[in-house]
Amino acid sequence: MPKQPTPQPGISDIAPYTPGKSKADGVSRIVKLSSNENPWGPSPKAITAFKESAGELHRYPDGSHAALRAAIAETYKLPAAQLICGCGSDELIGLLIAAYAGHGDEVLYSAHGFLMYKIYAQSHGATPVTAAEKNLTADVDALLAAVTPRTKIVFLANPNNPTGTMLPFSEVRRLRAGLPEEVILGMDAAYAEYMTDPAYEDGVSLVTEGSNTVVFHTLSKIYGLPGLRIGWAYAPTHIIDMLNRIRSPFNVNSPALEAGVAAVRDQAHVSLSRENNAVERERVSAAITEMGYHVVESHTNFVLVKFGAQAATIAAQLAKQGVMVREVAAYALPEYLRISIGTAEENTALLNALKHCAALQAA
After folding, report:
1. Out of 141, 142, 163, 231, which could bridge 89 as a Cys pair, Cβ 3.0 to 4.6 Å?
2. Of the candidates 217, 173, 179, 164, the residue with the CA atom closest to the CA atom of residue 199
């Protein structure tokens, strides 16, 4: 047997990212509430744009993403020259780490932060470091206390996945002010479009004011386009320049670019999705609370529920009934399940399945 090639140090220590489950053995009808998808789907205009792009599949996409950056700039009132697009916001997170953190450096984030921060840090030889949270919410004091001379990037998902909690912008601003000027603050705003709290801001003003801050957004959540993998970031010009130097020249495909433009410009559909989600999130949270389980207050399109030592068992029982939810033991939350908000019909199926699980637990 030939010798196997030796991977770079640390690569074999990476635990691969495991996405939410979408099927169960022996179950034909699935209610998928495991991946924080928009159950009402993307804008019909985005679907039309995607279909109309089929005639140009023999052409390379626009490597500058000019039309999509222009649509984002117009909608979010940002300068197009300071925007970059990627194959999901996670690609851009990886590019930021690749550009600014390597062997001997540290990437810092809160204890229950997005797993890709750790994976990308390890893949580029940097050391992932976590800071304790307070009440399942990022703790600014703990983050600042964990900063060392080796810290290159601090990531803050706000609102956070998988907890659904958020920090008011006053705390985000305090975090930025407490960081060394040269340390990058990466604001992961994947769920920002669900926010209605006046105390919230995604962090764009910090970029505009000139700090070394990067704000990430995605079209996978409220825009309903996870299958096309589109993300974008707003950052200072010098950081945008570095990311453009190392990204793939055609990292966003043509159908995604066309659908993305249409989706971003259809803010009426975004508003409708946000309103529908708020109504169903309140209904689901109230019903699960009434069953006796603790539901963490959420600002997103999912809820985190504490089921205790039976969490994994309940997830398996739900799967047997065709309801797929997300186990979050990998986020150091083994007693919790993350449940995406679905349509009214899907959520009713979830609640009925949970009642059946409770009956099984009681038997």
Report:
1. 231
2. 173
Q: What residue ranges define each of the domains in the chain, with the CATH number in brackets?
A: 11-32+268-362 (3.90.1150.10), 44-266 (3.40.640.10)
- Tens-place pLDDT, residues 223-248: 999 999 999 999 999 999 999 999 99
340 with 36: CB under 8 angstroms? yes
Strand locations in 60-99, DSSP E?
83-86
State the Cα–Cα distance between residues 233 and 92, nearest whole angstrom.
Answer: 7
Answer for the pair 217, 231: CB distance below 8 angstroms, yes or no: yes
The Cα–Cα gap between 152 and 243 comes to 15
3-state secondary structure (DSSP) of residue 73: helix
Q: Compute the distance between CA of residue 326 and CA of residue 322 in angstroms, rounded to an integer.
A: 13
Interval 185-219: pLDDT, tens = 999 999 999 999 999 999 999 999 999 999 999 99
